Amino acid sequence: RDSYLPLCVGAKLVIVSRETGSYGVQLLDYLKKVNATVMQATPVTWQLLIEAGWNGSPALKALCGGEAFPRELANELVKLSKSVWNMYGPTETTIWSATGQVKSGNGPVPIGQPIANTQFYILDKELQLVPPGVPGELHIAGDGLATGYLNRKELTAEKFIPNPFRKEPSARMYKTGDLVRRCNDGSIEFLGRLDDQIKLRGFRIELGEIQTVLSSYSGIGQAIVILREDVPGEKRLVAYLV
């Protein structure tokens, strides 16, 4: 996992408690206390830190992952940190599969390039490679690929499919369900999901599962759940009931 990297190079690793990480002021105090040189957090956590009055650190390398990286937040972190890196990757590929340094700019923040021993394939429904600029589903292969889901053979077969770009019969690649496209400069832009799965505060959420539970209650005929962002940066789940 990602926590092994600092340990492998002899660095000190500090894991912040959920309580501290949920409150910007406490997190800011803790950051000052440990004098960190690298910090990894979700966009929501970085936003909490800034709202708590963090003035930045010229020695801090900021790693951001877990959900889409808003451009406005990215530009702010670039001003406050030594460097900013967008980290992308699902759990099925051992957390991080791509990374890229973020610079100030406009438009979506690219998810970066595959890390060592990792391959990205952007494919259409026929599993054919799409040209630059054309949206397709991202498939990931390489040494970081998991062997599948524990005791869930059908789901494993659905998501971990044979890799047609490798000669080995056992080679597999993971269907991420993420819609992306490769830009002319080689960067990869995240466009959204191909299903109703979302990420909120770094957690995967299947909206359909929530809707099913709500609909099971007596007195509720239909239910739909969506992700709303009425106030920029403040995402929340909202359920509509009949």
**SS-derived structural category:** alpha+beta
Based on DSSP secondary structure assignment, what is the total number of beta strands? 14
- Percentage of residues in strands: 35-45%
Low-confidence segments, given as residue ranges, are: none
Please report the number of helical segments.
7
Distance between the termini: 43 Å
Spatial order of the strands forming the largest sheet: 1-2-3-4-5
Based on CA atoms alone, the radius of gyration comes out at 20 Å
- Largest sheet: number of strands, sense, barrel closure: 5 strands, mixed
Residue share in helix? 10-25%
Query: Quick check: average pLDDT?
Result: 90
The coarse overall form would be globular
What order do the helices and strands follow? HHHEHEHEEEEEHEEEEEHEE
How does this model look, in words?
- By secondary structure, this protein is of the alpha+beta class.
- The protein has 7 helices and 14 strands.
- The strands form 4 sheets. The chain has a 5-stranded mixed β-sheet with strand order 1-2-3-4-5. Strands 6, 7, 8, 9 and 10 form a 5-stranded antiparallel β-sheet that branches.
- The model has no long low-confidence stretch (mean pLDDT 90).
What keyword list fits this structure?
five-stranded antiparallel sheet, 23% helix, 7 helices, single chain, five-stranded mixed sheet, alpha+beta, 242 residues, 35% strand
Can you describe this structure in just a few lines?
By secondary structure, the protein is an alpha+beta fold. The protein has helices at 4-8, 18-21, 24-34, 43-51, 71-80, 153-159, 207-215, and strands at 38-41, 57-65, 81-88, 98-101, 113-114, 118-123, 136-142, 160-162, 172-182, 188-193, 197-200, 203-206, 223-231, 234-241.
